[in-house]
Amino acid sequence: MSEFLISNDLITQCNEISAKSHEEDFEKLAILLDRKSLSISDLVSKASNYNVAIPSWGTGTGGTRFARYPGKGEPRDIFDKVDDCSVINQLSACTPSISIHIPWDRPKDPNKLKDYAQNRGMCFDAMNSNTFQDQVGQKHSYKYGSLSHTNLDTRNQAIELNIECIELGKILGSKALTVWIGDGSNFPGQSNFQKSFERYLDSTSKIYTNLPDDWLMFLEHKIYEPAFYSTVIQDWGSNYLAATELGNKAQCLVDLGHHAPTVNIEMIVSRLIQFKKLGGFHFNDSKYGDDDLDSGSINPYQLFLVFNELVQANLEDHNFKPAFMLDQSHNITDPIESLIISAIETQRAFIQAHIVDREALKVAQVENDALMASEILKNAFRTDVTPILEKARLNSNGPIDPLYCYRKSKYRSIVSEVRPIIAPGSSGIV
Ligand SMILES: [Mn+2]
Question: Domains, the chain, ranges and CATH?
Answer without folding.
Answer: 8-416 (3.20.20.150)
